Amino acid sequence: MDFVLTEEMVLNDLINTCNQYFGFKVLDATPIKRGWLNLKWKITTNSGVFLIKQYNKERYKLYNHEELLLAFSQQMRLHNSGLPCPKLYTHEGQFLIESEKGELFMLMDYCNGTVIPPGKLNVHQMYDLGRVTGYMHHLLNDGTLGVKKRPEFIPPSREERLTHWESVWNHANNTDKSHLLPILETQYKVTEAINLGDFKLNETGWAHRDLWVDNLLFEEKKISAVLDFDRMKYDYPQLDVARAVISGALNEDNFNVSLVQAFIEGYSEQRLLEKGFIITSLKMLWFMESTWWINSSMDQHSGPPERFAKEMLWLSENHKELESMLENI
Question: Residues in domain Aminoglycoside phosphotransferase (predicted)?
Fold first, then answer.
């Protein structure tokens, strides 16, 4: 049976390792309670302020080690090219450092800024998020990484997805979740109406793949840092756009079109977009993510999954209205 370290024991282990490898003295450590399972601390030292991110052993099993290392190397390339994201530190050339007690962790600069709740960004922040996202996509797809044969997300056929929603409906119906049935019926109807040919599946590229407000820091009128590149892979950059837009512009049931417009204006400084791009991107985001968050146990969601489910619900309920809402963007 593995011995499980307490958070305090993990922190002391990481501090001792940092002291040994980087030679600084830790004066203060403050836990950062964000993210799933991985532990984070802001550490103040005699050499500056840093962030330590420990990788939970169970969650780490979900990652591909080589893909993580690629993501870290690209984060440093983006940082060195002026994108606002944390500088990473290496020990003996490695971004992922192993502590004395076998914990995997990273050391990076601590970035100042505020995490803004979903739907609460102002127009200046949204514009700058668009600009920075466009610049990130430009750098990631400048040819340095090349292209891959297949993106991460392979859309299933309409028939496969309809079968999925039938199965979820039946499970909810058989487990006394009748209050969820109208929601699931809406997903089925929207799936029937979806045209996969509209999704521009040839527009693949490298993307962040987790671009929502919890992974962003802001100052009053601009973005101060893009965080957490762990999921960066070859996929669809348009899904980054849709995820950032729905995260920043949807406040409860109010989708602020002026914020969408600001994001697209900022993004278009870096990459030209066709009219209607955001409509297609939001529909594709729903097609990919709806099955992740809308299910027969969604009434038990809390935290980020609850927010993501609300976004998917809003997109399904307003599927037909997206064209009229966003026709001028």
Answer: 29-268
Structure token pair of residue 20: 């040994």
Residue 189 structure tokens: 């109807």
**Of 59, 85, 109, which closes a domain?**
109
The C-alpha angle 205, 206, 209, rounded to 5 degrees, equals: 115
Helix then strand then coil, in percent of the chain rounded to 5, is: 50, 15, 35
**Biggest CA pair distance of the chain:** 60
In-domain check, residue 145: yes
What is the C-alpha to C-alpha distance for residues 289 and 190, in angstroms, rounded to an integer?
A: 14
Pair 175, 307 in one domain: yes
Averages of pLDDT over runs of 10 residues in the chain (329 residues) are 74 96 96 85 97 90 92 98 98 96 96 97 98 98 96 97 98 96 98 93 96 97 97 98 98 97 97 94 98 97 96 98 95
Same domain, yes or no: 82 and 146: no
| SS3 category, 294 | coil
Collect contacts of 62-66 with beta carbons under 8 A, ≥24 apart: 63/230, 65/96
Q: Which pTM was predicted? A: 0.95
Rounded Cα–Cα distance for residues 263 and 132 (Å): 10
Q: CA-CA distances (angstroms) from residue 231 to 139, 240, 305?
A: 17, 11, 17
Q: How far apart are CA 132 and CA 208, in angstroms?
A: 12
φ, ψ for residue 62 (rounded to 5)?
Answer: -80, -15
